[in-house]
Please model this.
Amino acid sequence: MTKLNIVLFGPPGAGKGTQSEKLIERYQLVHLSTGDIFRANIKGETELGKLAKSYMDRGALVPDEVTIKMLESEVNKHPEANGFIFDGFPRTGAQALALDAFLESHETGIAAMLALEVPEEELRARLKNRALTSGRADDANPDVIQNRINVYNNETAPVAEYYRAQGKYQGVVGVGTIQEISERLFDAIDQHA
Ligand code: ADP
Model:
């Protein structure tokens, strides 16, 4: 039985975390957010956390080698999962290649990349708003936000092309109420389930 593995994609502030919660509830999938895992490591003051913090505070990407290894070990913790929602991963071409090779070695693969599409002005407004409550250093500083948007445009957006070439890319309008956006994602997933 193949698993339902979904890449939830989109720029910082697109709503990946919020929508992941709706998706795991409906499809009983395991949610793996690389950002959340790094933040948990920072809180726990692990070696990985210390390393990740030095990149995250600047809005830069944590190096591929570290990120890929961490993600693979998280997947391996859930052998019985119905599937995974990958949130914030892959963020580079190297991560996308590594994920495909890794899933293939487990005789599974990515069913679809669902990409939340949100205009840049709306993203900035959401991140500014989130900074008031998230306690995230990378939300509080406009220069860091700009850096994250630049990194997304330069390094992460091309990952969409990788999935498009495999016929797996699906854009979803990421503006509207949380529920409207969830319904769009459910419709998109139900085509693959
Ligand atoms: P956002 O999507 O709002 O930027 P995330 O929680 O997904 O928030 O990511 C926060 C930070 O964690 C990123 O700016 C980056 O430093 C680091 N990070 C998360 N995922 C990855 C990844 N796949 N590769 C490298 N760094 C990552």
User: Anything to note?
Assistant: The radius of gyration is 16 Å. The chain has one domain: 6-186. The mean pLDDT is 95.
